[in-house]
Structure formats: structure tokens, C-alpha cells
């Protein structure tokens, strides 16, 4: 067992940055000549060529007509065969929704568990990942025989890769039969046209669980109005139906990059933070001084948003007069 | 339809988290506990399916004695019976070890559907349901918001990234991991709480279930996260802090 396989994911014909970050993480685990990038699909020619422009040494194109569209069964079976043939020491994935769907099953086929959503790799190797919704970091060590499966969090590793010679592309054809694929996936769809484009908003007030009840929402709406800001929310607020889904920011909602993001009563779970990390200035208002939102905030007020937000609205109005 | 729902008890979101002296886990001495949020949504989905199509909802949970309160809560909300895999040292297991315990506990149940929450709020490994499917040889789908029964199995709504969704058809039996927010959680009624006391809770000692639960991912150490930015905390009363922030927004951030 040696070397690293990094599984690259293509979505809607595009390779997102998180994949190159996974490749960078793979380069922490072995020398470049031992790191191979893997593309999976029914027709991998374009995908493999694109991966080859960045991969350090070798690209493996896992190709079979039954690998499109994505299914957990197809990917688990195909990658199991590749891993048994390659016997890598590490298999690295981007921590995407698709990886969350099949990588745990794939790892279980080897008696292994995916060390998921890793934010750092230190000598050992020791893998850091978040616990308790981001309130703690845990350090994990892989033990046991067999490949070590790791997925990396978006933004945790720097995607800037050194320039390598164009990598050689090898094809791997798994043995796969239609009857082995037990699920029938439909075409992706969007629930409704996004009427609110938070992505281009300059000022955003985001509201989270700290608002406690729907009846308190006017408080943050008034602050947004006073600032001339868009109102946004973390997932629980939209799940409760207090604000429409189109105002949700985070991994399952929109990604924003305003000049100012005020997080009111948002604890700062990673799913929300990935959506706001492009903000130039983050202000956190939260009653819990240990809330993870304060780790990324430029300014913080520890207090109950039901008191702080109205005071802030009044101060903004006074400043604008 | 026979539905199994796997639930986990986790520290309540508002609990103060302190690291214990060993530095390997948190101090559990005065923690408040709650049902993991996405597991509560999985339970709700199971109860809705039972109300529509008839059958039985069985909850299964692994953990120490304290897990009993979360199991009673599930029974009070309408689950018919429960299996408690009594495991005192849950923190020393990884998701593979927990899934192996659950798979062994369920081996004679033959359900039509197994539901689990997507991810726990404490360890957040997000894998137990998917591994359980693999161990039981069942098809699965993850990040599911809604479940419809069809003639041959299930049609489910799966969440993709950035506001996209997808419908997936699965045969029965199947395993689904449920995302929070696809349904509205119910409260237990007084009658439900009363009835829960008489419902069956089968106890299985983890030690007696012959599975290999040696972790392959070993948690070595826990620590408070290092700050990514240096946050300027604005102190004082709400009014003073607000005034200080407006000053910063005007003269440092220049957005006012």
C-alpha cells in the first residue's frame, strides 16, 4: 500500500475549486509522483484532460456507461475495484454532497470509515475536523489495516497548486452491470426561480436561531431597512418557514460576498460559514461568547440580539440623519 | 409498513461545552441532552408515513443509560417500540463501530424502510445511516427531505448543493438519511407521554453483540478552535455597543 488517490468530481460540466483543494491535501500526504487524480464518468475524455492540466503525475479515468448519471451504487462498485487494483495508502475526496452520499459506503467495503470534512493535516498524519457544530476541533489518527479515506472541507486547503508537467492519462474500466444499480436518479431541478440575488448585495443582515420566534423578525427587518441592506437567514429560519428559502445563505443556499455581513443570532455552523466567508467585514451579535461565529467575525457584540439589534437600528438611523 | 428510525442523543445546542481533563473528550458531568435534530426529522418522516400507510415505527438508539430519556421522547411522539443498544463508551466508537452495533441489533427486524438523521450535532461524521445501508446490503439515498411510498418502493426528494434538488426512486427495503427541515416536528402530547411509559424498550448490551467495534478513526485530542481573525469585541450595554459599532462601520469599514 502506497500513494494517494484523489477523486475529482465534476458537477454540471465543471470542476469546482474544492477539487483542487482536495488535490492540494493529497500532496500533503505523499510526494507528487505518488499522487494520482481520479475522474469518474461515462465519457471522461474532457474531464481527464482538464484534470491532467493540474494533476502532479498521473490521471486515472474511471469510465463506464453506467457511471452517468451519478449513483452511489455505481460509484462505490467502480471505485472499490480501482482501489483494490491500486492499493493506495490514502484516498482523498472533496467533502461535497455527492461524496457524503457514497464515500462512507465505499470505505465500509474496506472495513474503513471516512475521516470526513477535514480542515487540516499535520505530520503523523493527524487529521483535524470540527466537532460540536464548530465549537471544538478534534484531532484524528487513522488506525488499522487498509486505505485511509479522507474528505476535505471547502476552503480548508489552498487550491493554488505548483505547476507540473502534463500528467499521463490511464483508463480504468470497471466491471459493472445495470442490475447492480438499485436506485433511479432524476434530473436535478430548482424549486423556484431565485427572485432574490443575495450574491451581489453589498450589505446583508443575516438572522439565525437567536431570533427565537417569527414575531421578532421585524426587529432585524428594521435594521436591514435602516442600513439599506438585504435580509438573509441561516437554514433553521427558512426550515421553519419564517423567511423564504431564497433568503437562505450557506452550503444549501446562496453564497454571498458583501462589504458588510451582520450575523444576528447565528452561531456559525460550518454550513453557514462557507456561504459568508467572502464577506469583507463580518459583525457577529450573539449571546454565546463561545459561538464559532466569533472566530470569523471582525467585530463582535456579546449580547441578546433582541436588545442589541433595536439599539443598533436606532444608532444607524441617528448616524444617517 | 415497518419503519426503523435510528436516533442519537446529543448534547443540547445551548449546553456549555468544556473539555475534560484528559483533553480527549468533553466534560459530560452537567450537560443537557436532546434528540439530534436531523434524527428528530427522520422520526417525524417515519411517523407521517405510518399515519398514511399504516404499520409500525421502531426507534433504535445506541448509547448509555441516559439515552433512555430520548427514547421515551420518541415513544411519546408516537413510535411504537424501541431498541436500546446500551453502550457506555459511545465516544470511543467511530461511525463504523456504531453502524455495526445497529446493524447487529436490527438483524431480525426485516423492516421496509430505515431512516436516520443525516449527521449528528456532536461528532458530525455524517455517515452512520449510509454505512448501515452498506452493512445490511440495502440501497440508500442521503440528504432526503421528503419520502413518498410508491408501488415498488419509494420516491424521495434529495437536496443537492446551492438550492438544487433531485428525485430518486428506490426499491424497498431501503435506507434514507434525512436532512433537517423537510417536515415540521410535532410535540409529544400528554396522552403520548403517558402511553410511552408502557411501550416496549428492548435492551441489548453492546458488549454482548459480537461485532468488531475497534475504531479505525481514533479521536486523539479535542481543543478549542484557534481564531481565524482577531475579533474586536465591543463591550458595554446594548446601546453603548451599538454606538461603538456604528462608529466602526462609519470610519473603519466605511459602509455608512
Question: Can you describe this structure in just a few lines?
Answer:
Chain A has 321 residues and is an alpha/beta fold.
Written account of the structure:
The complex is a heterodimer of chains A (321) and B (256). The N and C termini of chain A lie far apart (69 Å). Helix content of chain A is 28%, strand content 27%. Chain A is an alpha/beta fold and 321 residues long. The mean pLDDT of chain A is 94. Chain A folds into 2 domains: 4-180, Rossmann fold, CATH 3.40.50.620; 198-320, Rossmann fold. In chain A, the strands form 3 sheets. Chain A has a 9-stranded mixed sheet with strand order 9-8-7-10-6-1-4-5-11, with helices on both faces. Chain A has a 5-stranded parallel sheet with strand order 15-14-16-17-18. Chain A has helices spanning 17-27, 45-52, 72-86, 97-108, 217-227, 235-239, 270-276, 293-296, 305-320, and strands at 4-8, 10-11, 14-15, 35-41, 58-63, 90-94, 115-122, 126-131, 136-142, 148-152, 168-172, 184-185, 189-190, 203-207, 230-233, 260-264, 281-286, 299-302. Chain B has helices at residues 37-53, 67-77, 95-105, 128-136, 190-196, 238-251, and strands at 2-6, 9-11, 33-35, 56-63, 81-86, 113-117, 140-149, 153-159, 164-171, 174-178, 201-205, 217-223, 232-233. In chain B, β4 (56-63), α2 and β5 (81-86) form a beta-alpha-beta unit. In chain B, α2 (67-77) packs across α5 (190-196) and α3 packs across α4 (128-136). The mean pLDDT of chain B is 94. In chain B, the strands form 2 sheets. In chain B, strands 9-8-7-10-6-1-4-5-11 form a 9-stranded mixed sheet, sandwiched between helices. In chain B, strands 2-3 form a two-stranded antiparallel ribbon. Chains A and B meet through α3, α4, β7, β8 and β9 of A and α3, α4, β7, β9 and β12 of B.
Amino acid at each position: 500500500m502506497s500513494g494517494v488517490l484523489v477523486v475529482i468530481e465534476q458537477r454540471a460540466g465543471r470542476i469546482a475549486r474544492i477539487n483542487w483543494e482536495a488535490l492540494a491535501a493529497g500532496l500533503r500526504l505523499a510526494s507528487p509522483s505518488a499522487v494520482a487524480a481520479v475522474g469518474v464518468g461515462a465519457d471522461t475524455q474532457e474531464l481527464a484532460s482538464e484534470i491532467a492540466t493540474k494533476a502532479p503525475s498521473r490521471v486515472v479515468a474511471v469510465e463506464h456507461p453506467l457511471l452517468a448519471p451519478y449513483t452511489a451504487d455505481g460509484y462505490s462498485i467502480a471505485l472499490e475495484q480501482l482501489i483494490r487494483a491500486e492499493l493506495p495508502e490514502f484516498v482523498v475526496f472533496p467533502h461535497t454532497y455527492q461524496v457524503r452520499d457514497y464515500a462512507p459506503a465505499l470505505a465500509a467495503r474496506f472495513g474503513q470509515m471516512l475521516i470526513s470534512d477535514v480542515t487540516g493535516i499535520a505530520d503523523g498524519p493527524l487529521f483535524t475536523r470540527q466537532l460540536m457544530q464548530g465549537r471544538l476541533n478534534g484531532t484524528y489518527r487513522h488506525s488499522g489495516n487498509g486505505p485511509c479515506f479522507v474528505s476535505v472541507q471547502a476552503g480548508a486547503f489552498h487550491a493554488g497548486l505548483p505547476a507540473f508537467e502534463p500528467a499521463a492519462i490511464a483508463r480504468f474500466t470497471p466491471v459493472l452491470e445495470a442490475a447492480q444499480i438499485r436506485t433511479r436518479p432524476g434530473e436535478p431541478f430548482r424549486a423556484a426561480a431565485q427572485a432574490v440575488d443575495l450574491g451581489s448585495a453589498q450589505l446583508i443582515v443575516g438572522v439565525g436561531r437567536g431570533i427565537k420566534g417569527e414575531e421578532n423578525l421585524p426587529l432585524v427587518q428594521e435594521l436591514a431597512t435602516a442600513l439599506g441592506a438585504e435580509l438573509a437567514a441561516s437554514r433553521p429560519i427558512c426550515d421553519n418557514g419564517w423567511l423564504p428559502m431564497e433568503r437562505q445563505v450557506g452550503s444549501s443556499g446562496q453564497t454571498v460576498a458583501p462589504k458588510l455581513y451582520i450575523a444576528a443570532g447565528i452561531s456559525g455552523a460550518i454550513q453557514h460559514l462557507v456561504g459568508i466567508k467572502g464577506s469583507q467585514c463580518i459583525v457577529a451579535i450573539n449571546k454565546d461568547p463561545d459561538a464559532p461565529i466569533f472566530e470569523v467575525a471582525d467585530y463582535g457584540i456579546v449580547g441578546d440580539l433582541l436588545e442589541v439589534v433595536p439599539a443598533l437600528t436606532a444608532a444607524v438611523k441617528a448616524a444617517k440623519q | 409498513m415497518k419503519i426503523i428510525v435510528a436516533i442519537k442523543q446529543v448534547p443540547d445546542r445551548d449546553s456549555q461545552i468544556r473539555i475534560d481533563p484528559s483533553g480527549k473528550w468533553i466534560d459530560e458531568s452537567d450537560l443537557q441532552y436532546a434528540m439530534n435534530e436531523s434524527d428528530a426529522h427522520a422520526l417525524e418522516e417515519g411517523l407521517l408515513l405510518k399515519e398514511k400507510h399504516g404499520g409500525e415505527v421502531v426507534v433504535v438508539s445506541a448509547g448509555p443509560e441516559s439515552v433512555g430519556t430520548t427514547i421515551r421522547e420518541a415513544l411519546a411522539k408516537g413510535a411504537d417500540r424501541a431498541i436500546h443498544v446500551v453502550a457506555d463508551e459511545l465516544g470511543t466508537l467511530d461511525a463504523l463501530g456504531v453502524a455495526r452495533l445497529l446493524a447487529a441489533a436490527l438483524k431480525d427486524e426485516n423492516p421496509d424502510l430505515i431512516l436516520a438523521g443525516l449527521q449528528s450535532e456532536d461528532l458530525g461524521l455524517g455517515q452512520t445511516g449510509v454505512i448501515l445501508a452498506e452493512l445490511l446490503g440495502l440501497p440508500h439515498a442521503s440528504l432526503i427531505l421528503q419520502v413518498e411510498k410508491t408501488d415498488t418502493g419509494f420516491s424521495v426528494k434529495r437536496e443537492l448543493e446551492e438550492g438544487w434538488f433531485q428525485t430518486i426512486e428506490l426499491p424497498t427495503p431501503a435506507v434514507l438519511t434525512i436532512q433537517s427541515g423537510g417536515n415540521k416536528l410535532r410535540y409529544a402530547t400528554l396522552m403520548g407521554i403517558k402511553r410511552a411509559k408502557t411501550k416496549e424498550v428492548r435492551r441489548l448490551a453492546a458488549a454482548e453483540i459480537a461485532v468488531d467495534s475497534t475504531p479505525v478513526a481514533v479521536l486523539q485530542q479535542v481543543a478549542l478552535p484557534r481564531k481565524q481573525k482577531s475579533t474586536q469585541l465591543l463591550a458595554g450595554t446594548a446601546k453603548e455597543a451599538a454606538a461603538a459599532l456604528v462608529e466602526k462601520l462609519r470610519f473603519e469599514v466605511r459602509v455608512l
